[in-house]
Amino acid sequence: QATQAAQSQPLRQILVQGNQRVEADTVLSYLLLQPGVPVDARSVNLSIQTLFATGLFSDVRIENRGDVVVIYVQENPIINRVILEGNRAVDDDAINEEIQAQPRAIFTRARVQADVQRIIEVYRRAGRFAAQVTPRIVELPQNRVDLVFEISEGPVTGVRRVNFIGNDSFSDRTLRRELVTVESRWWRFFSTNDNYDPDRLEYDRELLRQFYQNQGFADFRTVSAVAELTPDQEDFYITFTLDEGDIYTFGDVSVETELPDVDPERLVQYLSVRSGELFQGELIEESVDTLNFAVGATGYAFVNIVPNISRNREDRTVDVVFEIEEGPRVYIERIDIVGNTRTLDHVIRRELELVEGDAFNRSLIDRSQGRVRRLGFFEEVEITEVQGSSPDRARLQVAVTEQPTGELAFGAGFSSTDAFLIDLSISERNLRGRGQFLRFRIAASSRREQIDIRFTEPRFLDRNLAAGVDIFSVRSDFITEASFETQSTGFSLRAGFPTTRSTNLGLQYTLRTDDVVVFAGANQALRNQAGSRVTSVMNYTLRWDRVDNPIEPTRGFRAEVAQSFAGIGGDVRFVSTEITASVYRPLFWNFVGSLNLNSGFIMGWGGDSVRINDRFFRGGNSFRGFEIAGIGPRVVVRDTTTGRLRGGDALGGRFYAIGTAEMSFPLPLPEQYGVRGSLFTDFGTLGLLDDDDLIAEATPGSAFTTDDLSLRVSSGLSIFWDSPFGPVRFDLAEALVNETYDRTEFFRFSTRTGF
Amino acid sequence: CQSRRISTETVYVEREVETIYAAAIEQMERGSYGNAADQFDEVERQHPYSEWARRAMLMAAYSNYEAGNYEEAISDAERFIALHPGNRSAPYAYYLVAISHFEQILDVGRDQQATMNALNALEQVVRRYPNTRYAQDARLKIDMTRDHLAGKEMSIGRWYLRRGFYLAAINRFRNVLENYETTTHVPEALHRIVESYVALGVDNEATQVASVLGYNFPGSEWYEDTYRLLTEEGIAIPNPDLQPDNPTYWQRLMDRLFG
Amino acid sequence: CTPVLRNHGFIYVDGEVPEIVPGEDNQASVLERLGSPSTQGVFESTTWYYMSDTRQSLAYQRPQTSYRRIMEIQFDDAGTVTAVNEYGIGDGRRVTLVDRETPTPGREMSVWEQLFGNIGNLPSEQFGGEQNLPGGAGGPRRDE
């Protein structure tokens, strides 16, 4: 507090007292008073304020003795140590990163209060809302203090159950899958999404709205999202009360614009919104996108497209009018990419739909942001626009935050066929910041060992063409079923590209040596197929995918045609074609019906017959109710007394056709167990051997080969359980129609877990 | 204040300031800069008001720099500047901040934030203490950082050029000419503009840029490439001694480097 | 499969090219009708260019420029238009670009380094790092 300066003579001298650590001239440098200049109250006050603002001093007094001014300063103490007590759930480093108080920093009351708030915020994010923090100071000599934060953490407030009221069109499980908040499970110790967090609840309400808006519920409202504490105060029950409202369909859809020579009728057909169809929020955004582009193509790059939606409750239709207005004519002069400490600039820039010099177009910017996000290398991607060097110029900044893209995965599994299965893989999705994928994998089970290296460049030769190379060495053991074992080592080159929005074409060339080792007791035909041969095979695969959800399809169809041609070089010559097609339709009460057909045919050429390791074997997962290689041609012996055929080694076949009709349904168990069942029937056949593989029945009781393409049918029940450790599958199947020599199997079980 | 038992694991020994300082120096001489930095911090923590504390703060910054933890070096040096702006070693503190940023520069394919920070810090050193030896080294490093930033512009320009986005490429190369005209990338920028305009078919622009390249960098490989390109495409090459309207490239380049 | 079309660079208002008359129009009128130029002459700011092109990309093929129009407007020192030239896709040429690049320091992360995690940044010697200047990285001399 400045004492009053009565007379204002020029100042001769300024003295600084009470400073210990801070040098006198540092204090002087902050002062507004200069020797030789008269002292006035205003400059004194300002000096005091600036000195306080430095945060160095707890008290500042200026005494004016006419021509000498004395400045008394009391320095803030220095923090000697910061001690955290009572923090168990959150460790010291996590807290120390958040707070400003550090050893050797200056102690001020304001900073300590701010730090208390920061620690509480850390606990809130960790799901502990009842945490309290009290700071305390321990005085030390030489104006130093120890700062102690006493923390009482309080209980973890997790989420015990999420319930829904009023959801008659969708099951709790489907809705729960849409939310980010998940129910606390003891195995979800890593995830923090199972802690109660009010902000996340708000976000969940938005997710629910989007979900319902896409299923036709235009009037959908989340009436309330209530979290009540469980009696034992440990967790919260969260209840969403929903008002679904009615299902709407699109009413009349129109485009309005005053722009000359943009003809609305033509544009209407571009829209993905069709009157009469189910109301879906997404389609509206999609239509805005297509309109933006369609209008852009006719020379109007600067347009704003505003869809205004009006509901008419009585006939439950939604009318949508897309208004096209002229926007400002702005160009993008520069695109800067920041935050990419690992990924190379061009790996991001090539995903952008815009180029420097292009017209500013909002939907292309959003689409670019989506594409960069889909790279999967970044936690966040944010494209913001900044005013450019002139009014009609803008500058885009693409800000990314990198995230680790390397992964070490370890999987273990157990199945009735493969006994014990483990695999270990290390992979990197953004190799050298170039967006390339590299994976080393070692997989071993009782029947198969595999080591492979896979490398993929997503944008080969700067084109929309993914190319890759695989090097592999696989040993598979069919001794028990077909008394042979193959060891194939080789490499393959592959390339894939989208041909249209839902179809893509994959090309692959593989060169491998197949070493077939035959069990001593095998029949002569098999024995002369032993030895190693080089296979050089070209393959193309055309995929057509129109399914609504790739993991659990409920509607749509999928088809794939793959043809391989071996014989350009190498000693093996064959042509093989395989087709798979599946159709999915939702039935009643959340049941999903699916029909699946797959068929394959392989044929040697140039006089070659198809060797055993290239032939098809069916059974096990591919034909439930039968063991691995359980159906198809086989070496048999006729039992002289009963005339029944006793089956020996399987021989595989050059043709197979298998169909499956399946109906999957939710089980009456509570949903969060994630158990689903399905009734199925598999039907089909496998057969057709080359002549020189056939052995006639020379004398009764001697072994001969059977190859009759007879129909096999099985049906049964499968249970899928998406257990905490990974997917588990049980198959119970009864072979209804089969050959006596086929090998049937009633029960099959398999699981895999990875982390 | 009430007496409280301070938890045992953070026992620290109050040691004489000279012994800690000596221990720190000894660590530094042995080359283990990380521990040296911790020891210097200890000096400042236990005896914040001693004369040694001020020196220890700067030495801690330097040790952190040598140990490669640049963020700590920067925060220590900045704390020194905040507490002792007038001190005789302040220029060195500013310099230390600058070279700590400088060491974190990533290659041109990646984010250049560190390069920008280094450039600003180096320019501060030159502005505040122009005739110290730190400023002289800072000027050299400024040219390096500007060259690096120009390198980034060129790499993006080339990326656009290779994909046929000539307008975007031309503007990137022009940016190099306007904002980084003293860097080693100027001849290439000129040649790339000639390549772009030849590809576009706008010959008068191509010939004009070619003549400036010829005039200012007659011996450079880039002029040879331009010369070959123009002759291949049958475009008349203006005689190199045509007086370009701003001949200052060469003089400015010369006096900047050897001024 | 249908090719994807995309416009780049300058967009003419509702598709047609406005009439710029040498002698009558000046920089202000051109600015008002066309907006600022896509780029200017590298060394003469009295030449303005308005460049626009349309590119076609089909599946995996490299996108092709199917249409390009460059309008070159030259002004005299007083700012009135002296000449307007047009360049189309026809004037374009295939140019083999020189693949030499002016070197910039900084090294690629080696495959192992990336796979096994330590992100190496720019070693100082790339920049002639060892500052042999007195008081440089050598630290303040003891006698200070």
Model description:
The complex is a heterotrimer of chains A (755), B (259) and C (144). Chain A is of the alpha+beta class. Chain A contains 12 helices and 34 strands. Helices cover 15% and strands 45% of the residues of chain A. In chain A, a hairpin with a 5-residue loop joins strand 8 and strand 9. Chain A is elongated, with a radius of gyration of 37 Å. The two termini of chain A are 65 Å apart. Chain B is mainly alpha-helical and 259 residues long. Chain B is 71% helix and 0% strand. Chain B is built from 12 helices and no strands. The N terminus of chain B is likely disordered. Chain C is mainly beta and 144 residues long. The C terminus of chain C is likely disordered.
Main β-sheet of chain A: number of strands, strand sense, barrel status? 16 strands, antiparallel, barrel
- Rounded to the nearest angstrom, the distance between the terminal CA atoms of chain A is 65 Å
Helix content range of chain A = 10-25%
The Cα radius of gyration of chain C reads: 26 Å
On the 0 to 100 scale, the average pLDDT of chain C is 72
Overall shape of chain C: globular
- Provide the structure class of chain A: alpha+beta
If helices are DSSP runs of H or I spanning 4 or more residues, what is the number of helices of chain A?
12
Assess the beta-strand content of chain A as a share of residues: over 45%
Largest interface pair: B-C, 66 and 48 residues
Mean pLDDT of chain A: 82
Shape of chain A: elongated
Rounded to the nearest angstrom, the radius of gyration of chain A is 37 Å
Gap between N and C termini of chain C: 76 Å
Give the DSSP E fraction of chain C (strand runs of 2 or more residues).
25-35%
**Strand arrangement, largest sheet of chain A?**
16-17-18-19-20-21-22-23-24-25-26-29-30-32-33-34
Q: What is the N-to-C order of secondary-structure elements of chain C (H for helix, E for strand)?
A: EHEEEEH
Q: Kindly state the number of beta strands of chain C.
A: 5
What is the tally of beta strands of chain A? 34
